[in-house]
Amino acid sequence: MTKVLSTLSALTLSLSTLYSSEVEMKASTGYFYTGASGKLIYQTPPVTGSSATFNFSQKTQAYFDSEIWVDVPFFPHIRLEYTNATLDGISDIEIQTDLNPQYIEFMKEFGLDLTQTFSQDSTLDVNFYDAIAYYQYLEKTPWPTIGVGAGVKSFKYVYSLNVVQSLDYQDYSGANVPMIYLYSRYYVPEAEFALESDLKWYIFGDSTIFDWRAKADLMVDFNKEFSAGVELGYRHMHFNIKGKDVDSVAGNATFSGIYFGLIGLYAKQ
């Protein structure tokens, strides 16, 4: 992420110098207070049809967003986003198994009956990366600014289950998913206050993924080029994966909660 951001910043400044154009670079960082709920369903032998149902309590998670734009014909706004969610709690495990009966009997010696539903300590660690290119319309008008574009959401997760004593089970997967991006922002220049919302959405096969945010931010100008501010908003991400669209796991997961952070803006006229 850092390397990509550095490359885009250098490209933006180069284009700005070449065309003597307006340029904007914006970054925000803070905390996303989220929990997670959902269900993973495994699609491969020997545990086809087995599931893990989880409902993890909310915790503060770090996020970082950046946006770059230069006033050059056909050059879009470019957004890069990163969010981490590391959560833990109890999962309810239901095994539908073709495992060797001797192995099932062996696990019973540890007090674990794989033929019945059981609850275990578990951890879910997910990293979300978003890269978006979009165009804005109705800028510098009394109307809300709107934006339309496309991007890619990349997510990778590790799901860990403490089965018995020192025996741990880990499942990991992920995907790179193309998404439609919609954006709206209403700015009140007299108050340096704005309301903003965006949506990333994708449907592939029978699966659906969407990521929606709404926020308010307040900015303070330090000089003609630099501004800083704060933001407060709500974010809701939902994944509903069917079949084998993402490796060998189906199921659903929801991450939602408030977020708050600091904003920095550089704007060269």
Quick synopsis:
This protein has 269 residues and is mainly β. It has helices at 2-19, 101-108; strands at residues 23-42, 51-70, 77-94, 118-137, 145-164, 167-188, 193-204, 207-221, 226-246, 249-268.
Describe what this molecule looks like in 3D:
With about 270 residues, this protein is mainly beta. It has a single domain, classed as Lipocalin. Helices cover about 10% and strands about 70% of the residues. It contains 2 helices and 10 strands. Strands 1-2-3-4-5-6-7-8-9-10 form a 10-stranded antiparallel β-barrel. The protein is elongated, with a radius of gyration of 22 Å.
Keywords:
single chain; 269 residues; mainly beta; Lipocalin; ten-stranded antiparallel β-barrel; 2 helices; 70% strand
Following the backbone from N to C, one meets helices and strands in this order, namely HEEEHEEEEEEE
Rg for CA atoms: 22 Å
The CATH architecture would be Beta Barrel
**Largest beta sheet: what is the strand line-up?**
1-2-3-4-5-6-7-8-9-10
Major beta-sheet overview: 10 strands, antiparallel, barrel
What do the pLDDT scores average to? 82
Q: Report low-confidence residues grouped into runs of 5 or more.
A: none
CATH topology: Lipocalin
Distance between the termini: 27 Å
Report the top-level CATH class. Answer: Mainly Beta
Total domain modules:
1
Shape: elongated
- The percent of residues in helical segments reads under 10%
Structural class: mainly beta
What's the number of helices? 2
Strand content: over 45%
Q: What order do the helices and strands come in, and which of them pair?
A:
Blueprint: H1 2-19, E1 23-42, E2 51-70, E3 77-94, H2 101-108, E4 118-137, E5 145-164, E6 167-188, E7 193-204, E8 207-221, E9 226-246, E10 249-268
